[in-house]
Amino acid sequence: GGMKQRVAIARALAYDPEVLLMDEPFAAVDAQTRESLQDELLRIWEKTGKTIIFVTHSIEEAIYLADRVAVMSPNPGKIREVIDIKLPRPRYNSDVRASAEFGWIRHKVRNLLQDGGEETFISNSSQDVSEAIFQDTAL
């Protein structure tokens, strides 16, 4: 579980990519290992400064790891809203998950996901989507 994920991250970083795409890398591990891997990923990000695009179905994981969360709509998948996460860093070894701000952001994301009504999406263009996500900061 966790060791395979650590090796996969190390292997990906060995190529020194500008952008690291991670598609649900911690989905198959237990909760304790997941939190440990999340903290490790944050340390790696702080040391390397790499841009990381992290795909997850976990609202808490997205908020904990990210500076920016893109909330997607179901079929067809479009970005409903991009939420800037302004929680203090470093986040590992902190009580950020228990903070009122974390709870407020989690509530906002959950409401966006549960709202099945039509919305104006940020963009239908992949270029505009990447610009919305990659303004100023990474991870």
Give a description of the structure.
44% of the residues lie in helices and 15% in strands. The chain is α+β, with helices and mostly antiparallel strands and 139 residues long. It has a single domain (2-133), classed as Rossmann fold, CATH 3.40.50.
Summarize the structure.
The protein is an alpha+beta fold.
Radius of gyration: 15 Å
Mean pLDDT: 83
Stretches where pLDDT falls below 50 for ≥5 residues? 117-127
Strand percentage, roughly? 15-25%
State the distance separating the first and last CA atoms. 23 Å
CATH topology group: Rossmann fold
> What's the CATH first level?
Alpha Beta
As for the number of domains, it is 1
Give the % helix. 40-55%
Total number of helices: 5
C-alpha geometry: globular
CATH architecture: 3-Layer(aba) Sandwich
**CATH fourth-tier homologous superfamily:** P-loop containing nucleotide triphosphate hydrolases
Q: How do the SSEs run, as a string of H and E?
A: HEHEHEEHH
Number of strands: 4
